[in-house]
Amino acid sequence: MKKIIIIGGGFGGLAAAKVLAKRNFDITIIDKTNHHLFQPLLYQVATAALSPGDIANPIRSIFGKNKNVKTIMAEVTSIDKVNRKVIFNGSSLLFDYLIISTGSRHSYFGKDEWEKYAPGLKTLNDALKIRENILLSLEAGERMEDSTLRERYLNFVIVGGGPTGVELAGAIAEIVNKNFIKDFKNINSKMTKVFLIEALPRLLQAFPEKLSAKVLRVLKDLEVEIILNERVTGIDENGVQLGNQFIKTRNVIWAAGNKASPLLKTLGIVLDNSGRGMVNPDLSIEDDPDIFIIGDAAVIKDAKGKFLPELAPVAMQQGKYVARNIHKRLSGKARRRFKYRDMGAMATIGKGKSVAVIKGLKLSGLIAWFTWSFIHIMYLINFRNRIRVMAEWIWYYITNRPGIRLIVKKSSKDLNTWLV
Questions:
Q1: How many CB atoms lie within 10 A of CB 201?
Q2: Helix or strand holding residue 3 (H, E)
Q3: Can you give the pTM of this predicted structure?
Q4: Which class for 114: exposed (0-12), middle (13-18), buried (19 or more C-beta within 10 A)?
Q5: What's the pLDDT at 270?
Q6: Active-site amino acid positions
Q7: In order of start, what are the domains of the chain with their CATH numbers?
């Protein structure tokens, strides 16, 4: 059997593996974690609306019935194109075909020292760190008597006005101000502030201007302070600097930029400014028709000359396309260029508040929220997760109380350190 290695167990990698698993191939999936993560709902773990198990599944269990699919938990450090092998943790594996679906990480545009104070949101660890910071800040605010000192813990700053930033801002404003705060005696919603900072003139650049304006109004109704046309110039343990304004805070979340895995540098191909690989119309790299890059790691334009967005539907369609192309190559059939079927875009701002563009149809409000909820539930990997997430959302919608508000990694000693 031909050996196929898939690096990355995200949307693109899994989509490719599911198609290939039905064929006579020897498939190996290599990922840094042991699970597939449903990233579009990661912000709900960060804001304590869902638990990690609701949006993640072990890769091994997904392919448990496929004897031709193996899973290795490891980090690939380099790719040897000449000798057809990938190197990881002192070991290596040979391949006939290679699919690289490594996704992306948050980029601080050369200011990597900011990451210590402004975590991004790409992994479960990121989400849990943000969640615990939010809960610790409320605990700190409860103990503070000095209103000036308390301000630092009750200000929440999100940098980046894309879908992740908008969803985080809406969720934090809603959950902190309406749901959590009622359980505290010494702090109230008037003491908390949520800031959303965007360097460009408007939020959600990929959406039509009318929907972007709608989102702006909804966020303002949730008392989120929107700051547009301002770039962050500094982040430290005391807060965020932008222009002449300094916001005191211990809670900064970074949602402003992405960069591809440094693994792509070992391929010796042309990369863009974000480190993504330039690929051929069939998603193969320039000098090797049997090595493919898909998802957030690839740079490719659509038929109109526009770069494809870094979205899960793009990665999934590319994964299925590459898997079929590999089968066609063995059958002697010619490859066709990849064509993306635009399924639209959507973002949620809070309970019953969403915006969506689906095949030219613009939706907002409750109907958009129900559409968003249905689509996200259907994309979850298995039936159990769908039922659990649906139950959590119904409970939250009726009671206004999310279920997961535990601080499990920290103690009162950690809180004392947090107060410094």
A1: 10
A2: strand 2-7
A3: 0.89
A4: buried
A5: 95
A6: 167
A7: 2-32+74-106+258-331 (3.50.50.60), 112-256+351-418 (3.50.50.100)
